């Protein structure tokens, strides 16, 4: 796991059960300045899912809540 993936996972774990939008995730976990069109966080979430999900194509731990953001629910 890369340092950025760990930071992202830590951000999700600290907000367990809460939906985080892209801005919140970027502010809390990103290690460099960002702009609204920066899609790198989506790539990092995808890579993290491949490492922690049993079936990354159907995530159950880091769920996408359409129109809102992402929800971390390891239970």
Descriptive terms for the model:
75 residues; alpha+beta; Arc Repressor Mutant, subunit A; three-stranded antiparallel beta sheet; 3 helices; 44% helix; WH-like_DNA-bd_sf; OmpR/PhoB-type_DNA-bd; Winged helix-turn-helix domain-containing protein
Commentary on this structure:
- It is a single chain.
- This protein is α+β, with helices and mostly antiparallel strands.
- It is 44% helix and 13% strand.
- The chain has one domain: Orthogonal Bundle (Arc Repressor Mutant, subunit A).
- A 3-stranded antiparallel β-sheet has the order 1-3-2.
- β2 and β3 (69-72) form a beta hairpin.
- The two termini are 21 Å apart.
- The mean pLDDT is 89.
Describe this structure in a few short sentences:
The protein has 75 residues and is an alpha+beta fold.
For the termini, the CA-CA separation is 21 Å
Instruction: Identify the CATH architecture.
Output: Orthogonal Bundle
Helix vs. strand class? alpha+beta
Please tell me what the overall shape is. Answer: globular
Query: Superfamily at the CATH H level?
Result: Winged helix-like DNA-binding domain superfamily/Winged helix DNA-binding domain
Keywords: DNA-binding
Organism: Sedimentitalea todarodis
Protein name: Winged helix-turn-helix domain-containing protein
What is this structure's SSE topology?
Layout: H1 3-14, E1 19-20, H2 22-29, H3 40-52, E2 62-65, E3 69-72
Antiparallel strand pairs: 1-3, 2-3
């Amino acid at each position: 796991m890369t340092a950025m993936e760990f930071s992202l996972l830590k951000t999700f774990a600290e907000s367990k059960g809460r939906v985080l939008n892209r801005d919140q995730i970027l502010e809390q976990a990103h290690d460099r300045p960002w702009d609204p069109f920066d899609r790198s966080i989506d790539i990092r979430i995808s890579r993290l899912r491949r490492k922690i999900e049993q079936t990354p194509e159907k995530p159950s731990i880091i769920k996408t809540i359409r129109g809102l953001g992402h929800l971390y629910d390891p239970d």
